[in-house]
Amino acid sequence: MTLEVDPAAIRHDYVARVSRRYGVIAAVFGLLCLSFLLDITTGPGGYSLSTIAEVLVDPMSHGARLKVIVWDYRLPVAVTAVLVGALLAVAGAQMQTILNNPLAEPFTLGVSAAASFGASLAIVLGFSVIPAVGPLLVTVNVFALCTCGFILLATRLKGVRSETMILFGIAIFFTFSALLALMQYMASEDQIARIVFWMMGSLSRASWEKIGLGTILLCFAIPFSLYRTWPMTALRMGEATAQSMGVDVGRLRVEMLICISLLAATAVSFVGTVGFVGLVGPHIARMLVGEDQRYFVPLSAMVGALVLSLTSLTSKTITPGIIYPIGIITSLIGVPIFISIILSSRRERLQ
Amino acid sequence: MTLTIANLSAGYGRTTVLQDVTVTDIPPGAFVGLIGPNAAGKSTLFKTIAGLITPSQGTLTIAGEDVTHLGRKDRAKRVAYMPQAYGCNALLSVFESVLLALKQTTGWRVNDDNLDRVSDTLHALGLSHLANRGVADLSGGQAQMVAVAQTIVRAPDVILLDEPTSALDLHHQLSILTSIRNEMDRKKPLVMAALHDLNLAAKFCDRLVLLREGAILADGKPEHILALPQIEETYRVLTDLERTQRNVLYVDARLA
């Protein structure tokens, strides 16, 4: 305890670090805007940036054909990529925090398996929970939310411990995987193809209605997360410490679990099971700004949005004229980047 | 802010750990040492005072006000509890970890007063040089000091420290307890600490409470308590062990 530092100096260090964080967030936001613009301008047709910009400002400036291409196809896809990336990354950040496990992601508790089963049910049997709204979207959502119900029920019976939640998640995952396999066994070749394609994930299912719904959800989830920022940050100090600081850990986990399930279920019903974004987004954000949730959650959302936006861009540009399923691209391109980040990150990253 | 514990019984599920515990009139600025063997109920008593366990009977009063059924957050404003568990892998700096402890009971926005309080607390405990260090990179002793800082920064009426010196060498044990005493002189909170080292308890505490098998065996000034025959009886297992260790050392010395 010989190295004494002036209290004003450590205060100043903290304030400086906070402003650096705003800098990082602004930089990532800049990259996101750039990637979004590139995503809109890239695609078959080879229209110039200025043409696209003019159509964005005045839809009919270059005729009905370009209006349809930009407004009904490219823009919804680009916005959906950003939106779904943000939804999954926020859900992932919350899941990693409440389970106190860096390997957690939005689908850890079996949401994706349940959603895939819901999709297969809708495809094979034409089954629909609410027939008027169309079979796939609602059915997938309902099944994804069912897992949340199971986990909540389990926590009522056994207490809200992270091990209990993970074990129930694994049980749910295997149950729905088995049911999915059963559906595939019963399905025709054409139906199997549709199920597999659905599970690979695709941004081409984008629509303005879905975008509206997703935006509303995100506008609820991020402020809610920020509202709970201090208890959530405390949870990272360990369950016992958080409790001793007055945090009702059980209640916080249940609240967050409901939020995560809504986010993950919505994302899955929009584009299929796009894994990985929910894992990598929070990881990159954590390495950049640490785990103060005031910066961690918004940056996770932005990194997730950036990753999926870049994926959307890549899926169009690898082979001109062919759009690869994003589920494949996120993993193939994301994993090497992710591993290189892990290998290059050092302990002093907080400095 | 006097603390009174009256006829308190508490436990986990159907197991009762504390039986009819009464400790009256602990005045503000007092340093009470809670001593007793492992599994005597020290942590359970702290958790009950901190509101993490609901007592099956009895009352807790702070400054004459019954806080037995006060909600968790309101309780945390008045009682700060440092649990035994420490060490974590969070990517947070020491400064941030102390700030977050303070922010649990103050408003959402971080203001100048919050930053001043965190930097003052770190300075007072001699932790200023660690302010920018990550909490995951601390040694066991440093982590324990940070946990104490997280407790003190909230400036509560009652501070409960569950074995604050267990991971520390003698020098740091003395320095942490001295820092706590200095803090107490400034802000006059009431401190209860579970201690295993009776010498330290005698040196720093104004009052000792001896707990065994969930019941209070003795309560009074350190010089009286440590002279009681019950002390030797309570800690006999320990002295037996010490004797054995001494024999082992003796044999080792002869072999060498």
Q: Keywords, please?
A:
heterodimer; A: 351 residues; mainly alpha; ABC transporter involved in vitamin B12 uptake, BtuC; 14 helices; 76% helix; disordered C terminus; B: 256 residues; alpha/beta; Rossmann fold; six-stranded mixed beta sheet; four-stranded antiparallel beta sheet; 10 strands; 42% helix; globular
User: How many whole angstroms does the radius of gyration of chain A measure?
Assistant: 22 Å
Mean pLDDT of chain A: 84
Shape type of chain B:
globular
Question: How would a textbook summarize the main sheet of chain A?
Answer: none
Q: What is the class of chain B in the CATH system?
A: Alpha Beta
The greatest inter-chain interface is formed by: A-B, 40 and 50 residues
- Number of beta strands of chain A: 0
How big a fraction of the residues of chain B is strand?
15-25%
Q: What percentage of residues of chain B falls in helices of 4 or more residues?
A: 40-55%
Question: Are there runs of chain A of 5+ residues with pLDDT below 50, and where?
Answer: 347-351
Basic shape of chain A:
globular
Total strand segments of chain B: 10
Sequence-ordered SSE layout with sheet pairings:
The complex is a heterodimer of chains A (351) and B (256).
Chain A: H1 7-41, H2 49-57, H3 64-98, H4 111-125, H5 135-158, H6 162-186, H7 189-200, H8 208-227, H9 229-235, H10 239-244, H11 249-271, H12 277-289, H13 293-317, H14 326-344
Helix pairs in contact in A: 1-3, 1-13, 3-8, 3-11, 3-12, 3-13, 4-5, 4-6, 4-7, 5-6, 5-11, 8-11, 12-13, 13-14
Chain B: E1 3-12, E2 15-26, E3 31-35, H1 42-50, E4 57-62, E5 65-66, H2 72-78, E6 79-82, H3 94-103, H4 112-124, H5 140-152, E7 158-162, H6 170-187, E8 190-194, H7 198-204, E9 207-212, E10 215-220, H8 222-226, H9 229-234, H10 236-255
